């Protein structure tokens, strides 16, 4: 990106917003283009200021970060969303990731790490390791019945070709495009093409959602047993 990353801050606490603005605004490659105090303000602001990334609090009084994320990610020109939260394993965090958020950061994360997360998401990289994804899935209960979720995931993944399925599993295990290319004896360009087709076929937003779907289907369990 040859211009500063355009960032929108969304949190109902003005002091938190001020702290984030001071922290992130000090980075040469990040420009704070707007602030919102509630999820209900986000859609209109996004249309006005055109951010690349939205740093989104989960808990807000009128419209929470989950609903705002779902609304944003349905847009054709959707910005990336990083969920801002106080908990690792939180039902709403996992739901936001399923809705298309590119990852999450904790409110007590070191400033340099939050800056790095904004940069990573702006570059198209998720800010969530597969290990944390698995922890979220196993620790959060009551979202929907596990077996039903697994079968739905398997049904969706059945539309993939064998090579696409292998790439999906490798993505879920945290491999970069270069790692996957080496593992599957493909070129990096071919891996990118496969990832793009997987996202299109499964109507997903990003690699985090591929990882979640593979976890739901139990594909990582299968590869672990095979290994």
Describe this protein with a few key phrases.
227 residues; alpha/beta; Rossmann fold; Arc Repressor Mutant, subunit A; 2 domains; five-stranded parallel beta sheet; 12 helices; 5 strands
Overview of this protein structure:
- The protein contains 12 helices and 5 strands.
- With 227 residues, the protein is of the alpha/beta class.
- The longest helix has 15 residues, at 188-202.
- Helix 3 runs parallel beside helix 4 (91-99), helix 8 crosses helix 10 (188-202) and helix 8 crosses helix 11.
- It is 55% helix and 12% strand.
- The chain has 2 domains: 5-138, 3-Layer(aba) Sandwich (Rossmann fold); 144-226, Winged helix-like DNA-binding domain superfamily/Winged helix DNA-binding domain (Arc Repressor Mutant, subunit A).
- Strand 1 (5-10), helix 1 and strand 2 (30-36) form a beta-alpha-beta unit.
- The protein is globular and about 50 Å long.
- The chain has helices at 14-25, 42-49, 65-73, 91-99, 111-122, 130-139, 146-157, 162-172, 177-184, 188-202, 207-217, 219-226; strands at residues 5-10, 30-36, 53-57, 80-85, 103-106.
């Amino acid at each position: 990106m040859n211009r500063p990353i355009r960032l929108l801050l969304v949190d109902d606490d003005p002091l938190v917003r001020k702290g984030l603005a001071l922290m992130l605004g000090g980075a040469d490659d990040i420009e704070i283009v707007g602030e919102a105090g509630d999820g209900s303000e986000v859609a209109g602001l996004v249309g006005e200021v055109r951010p690349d990334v939205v740093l989104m609090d989960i808990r807000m009084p009128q419209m929470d970060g989950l609903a705002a994320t779902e609304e944003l990610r349905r847009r054709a020109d959707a910005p990336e969303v990083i969920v801002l939260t106080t908990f690792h394993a939180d039902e709403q965090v996992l739901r936001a990731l399923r809705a298309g958020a590119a990852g999450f950061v904790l409110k007590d994360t070191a400033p340099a790490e939050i800056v790095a997360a904004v940069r990573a998401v702006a570059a198209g990289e998720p800010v969530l390791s597969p290990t944390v994804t698995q922890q979220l899935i196993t620790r959060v209960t009551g979202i929907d019945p596990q077996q039903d979720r697994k079968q739905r995931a398997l049904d969706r993944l059945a539309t993939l070709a064998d090579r696409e399925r292998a790439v999906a599993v490798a993505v879920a295990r945290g491999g970069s495009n270069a790692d996957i290319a080496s593992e599957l004896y493909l070129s990096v360009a071919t891996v990118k093409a496969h990832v793009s087709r997987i996202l299109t076929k499964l109507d997903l937003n990003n690699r985090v959602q591929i990882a979640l779907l593979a976890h739901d289907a139990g594909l990582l369990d299968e590869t672990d047993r095979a290994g």
